[in-house]
C-alpha cells in the first residue's frame, strides 16, 4: 500500500499474522473494507521460513498441520499450496532417567509398564478434558478445583514412575513451551479439548498435529494470502494507541499513520494487546487479564547435513531425551532434496537457559546431543541455524499464551469478548486448536463474523 498519513476503512485490523489476514479476507468477502496494520517489515508473524541453502527451506516458526486441521487444509488448497507427509519411518532414539541411549524397540521392551502407566494417565486426561467447554472453560463443573492447581501438581499426584512422569512432562512442555509447574491444570484440559484428545496433540503419525508440511515452506500460506489483500496491508506501522467510541475507532501507529474505522480487530497475542494504549482505558478485568497471559519460550535449531545418515541406521530422526539442551527432535528433510535436515526443539526451561548462551555454545551442546544419539557423522553439519522468539519485539515468545492458576476462572471471559467496537483475534483466543495455525484461522474468522454481524445487521 502507498505511504499515507491517514486511511479510512470499515474495519481496522491490528497484525498481519494468519489470524489478522484471515479476518481481513473474511470482512472483505462480506463487502466491508479492511485495512491491516502490521508492525513488522513482513507478514506472517509466528510463521517464518528461511531458505538456508537453495531448495532447503527451514521453518523457524510454524511447520506442521495435522489431519483435523480442516481450515488449514482448505486454505492451502484454495491458495494452491501443496502439502506432503512428515517423514516417519524408523525408530525414535530415547535417553531418559539415566537409561542411556536406547532405540525405540529396546526402550519399549524395557519400560513397557511405565508406558502403560502413561497411557492410563493420557486416557484420564482425555476424559476430564471432555468436561471443559472450550468457549467457557471457567464453567466446567470442577473449574475452581482444576484452576487452583498446576498441571504439574496434578501429574505429581498420579503416583507415576519417574520414566512415565518425565515422558509426560516432555510431551506437555512440547506443546505448551513452559514447565507444567507454571500452567493451570484447567488450562491444560482446555488445550486438550480444543484439539480433541491427547493423542491428537502428542502423536506425530496418523491423527497427530504434525503429520503434514507445505511444499515451499509454511511461509507460502501467509505470502499468498497477503497477495490477495495486498492493497489493504500496511507494513512497518506498529499500533500504539486505539481511541474508541460507541461507533468508531481511530488507530494511531508509530510514524504518524492514523487509521479510522467503525470497528477494530486486534489480532495479536493478549500480552502484546495489553501493551497498546486504549482511550478510554479498557475495563480493569481486561487489563488484569492481559497482565496474566505470558507467552511460552521455544527455540528451533536446524542442522543441515549432506545426507540423512540416521535413516540408513533405521532411525526416524526423532529423539526423546532428558539429557542436554533438546528434549525432542525431528527429521525435517525436504522431499526431492538430498540434504539431511534435523530439527531440535528447545522448549520451556531449555529455551530459557540454552537460549541465553552464545550461539556457538548452544550449537556445540546440541551437536554433542546428536552425536550421542546418531553417531560421529552428526558432528559435521554443513549448516546450522536457530531461531529465538522471546527477543522478537512483535512476538515476545511462543508458541502461545498459557494461563497459570486462577486466571481462567477469575478473568477468562475477558479473553475474547468484544469491548464496544474492539474485537479480539489471534490463535490465543481460539476455541479450536488454540495455539496452532488452525486456531489462528478459527479466531480470525470468529472475530470477522462478530464485526460483520455488527456492521451489516
Ligand atoms: C517456533 C514456532 C513453532 C510453531 N509450530 C507450529 C506448528 O508446527 N503448527 C502450527 O499449527 N502452529 C505452530 N506454531 C504456532 C503458529 O505459528 C501460530 O499459532 C500462528 O501463526 C499464530 O498466528 P496469529 O495471527 O494468531 O499471531 P501472530 O503470528 O503472532 O501474528 C500477529 C502479528 O501482529 C503483529 N504485531 C504485533 N504487535 C503489533 C502492533 N502493536 N501493531 C501492529 N502489528 C503488531 C506481529 O508482527 C505479527 O505479524 C508455531 C509457532 C512458533 C513460534
UniProtKB/TrEMBL annotation:
Protein name from the UniProt record: Monoamine oxidase
Needed co-factor(s): FAD
Domain Amine oxidase positions: 18-451
Annotated binding of FAD, by residue: 19, 38-39, 239
Family annotation (SUPFAM superfamilies): FAD-linked reductases, C-terminal domain, FAD/NAD(P)-binding domain
Keywords of the record: Oxidoreductase
Entries under Gene3D superfamilies matching the protein: 3.90.660.10, FAD/NAD(P)-binding domain, Guanine Nucleotide Dissociation Inhibitor, domain 1
Tagged with keyword Oxidoreductase: yes
Presence of the UniProt keyword Chloroplast in the record: no
Organism: Mycolicibacterium aromaticivorans JS19b1 = JCM 16368
Similarity comment: Belongs to the flavin monoamine oxidase family.
Residues noted as binding substrate in the record, renumbered to the chain: 345
GO MF, one example: oxidoreductase activity
